[in-house]
């Protein structure tokens, strides 16, 4: 009987870890002067190549969700050492002629490796996959006024699945934008 209880406790513990360890938090502030609904958005993403997989998953999920809501979306990803200049960037934005430009900029990205072989064996293939944290600044600028209409900070932590975390972060971001009346 004792072993059945122990196995049940372990199963509940492991299940709760998989359902509760992915965290995506967003803090946002919207301009009270902006009361329009956005029909098109140009998303510009700036980040380092090492963390590109998370950003790509995040932006792909955002793009999918926005398109499902009828919002036209164009995405441009570039690194800090990109040779693309302001003229090139402006030409890409002008091609879509969006209502707003959303700049997603990597603020901090780091990895905390848990020095515990059990965690590595159960949940990861390498120490570097454990407990990643991504912090991003988001700045939405109106094309008509050239003023910031929405700012946000995205904080995502995940020890297990990058794709699932990116999806959760994208969904929370879109939900926050909807609550703020942008879509």
Write the layout of secondary structure elements.
Elements (H helix, E strand, L loop, with lengths): L1 H19 L2 E8 L9 E7 L5 H17 L3 E7 L7 H11 L3 E12 L5 H7 L8 E11 L5 E11 L3 H18 L4
Parallel strand pairs: 2-3, 2-4
Antiparallel strand pairs: 1-6, 4-5, 5-6
The count of DSSP E runs of length 2 or more, i.e. the number of strands, is 6
Content of β-strand: 25-35%
Following the backbone from N to C, one meets helices and strands in this order, namely: HEEHEHEHEEH
CATH topology: Rossmann fold
The order of strands across the largest sheet is 1-6-5-4-2-3
The overall pLDDT, averaged over residues, is 76
Structural class: alpha/beta
Integer count of domains: 1
Radius of gyration: 19 Å
Low-pLDDT runs of 5+ residues are 8-20, 115-130
Number of helices: 5
Our measurement of the CA-to-CA distance between the termini, rounded to an integer number of angstroms, reads: 55 Å
Major β-sheet annotation: 6 strands, mixed
Q: Architecture, according to CATH?
A: 3-Layer(aba) Sandwich
CATH class assignment: Alpha Beta
Work out the oligomeric state of the chains in this entry. single chain
Bulk shape: globular
Kindly state the percentage of residues in helix: 25-40%
Report on the structure:
It is a single chain. The protein is α/β, with parallel strands linked by helices. The protein has one domain: Rossmann fold (3-Layer(aba) Sandwich). It contains five helices and six strands. It has a six-stranded mixed beta sheet with strand order 1-6-5-4-2-3. Helix 2 crosses helix 5 (162-179).
């Amino acid at each position: 009987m004792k072993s059945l209880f122990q196995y049940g406790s372990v199963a509940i513990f492991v299940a709760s870890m998989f359902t509760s360890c992915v965290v995506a938090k967003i803090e946002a502030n919207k301009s009270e002067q902006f009361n329009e609904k956005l029909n098109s958005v140009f998303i510009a993403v700036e980040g380092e190549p090492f963390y590109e997989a998370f950003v790509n998953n995040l932006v792909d999920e955002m793009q999918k969700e926005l398109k499902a809501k009828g919002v036209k979306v164009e995405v441009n990803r570039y690194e800090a050492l990109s040779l693309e200049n302001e003229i090139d960037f402006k030409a890409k934005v002008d091609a879509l002629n969006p209502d707003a430009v959303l700049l997603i900029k990597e603020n901090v990205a780091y990895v905390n490796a848990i020095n515990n072989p059990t965690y590595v064996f159960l949940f990861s293939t390498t120490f570097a996959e454990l407990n990643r944290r991504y912090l991003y600044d988001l700045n939405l600028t109106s094309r008509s006024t050239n003023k910031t209409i929405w700012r946000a900070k995205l904080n995502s932590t995940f020890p297990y699945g990058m794709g699932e975390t990116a999806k959760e972060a994208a969904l929370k971001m879109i939900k926050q934008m909807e609550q703020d009346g942008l879509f």
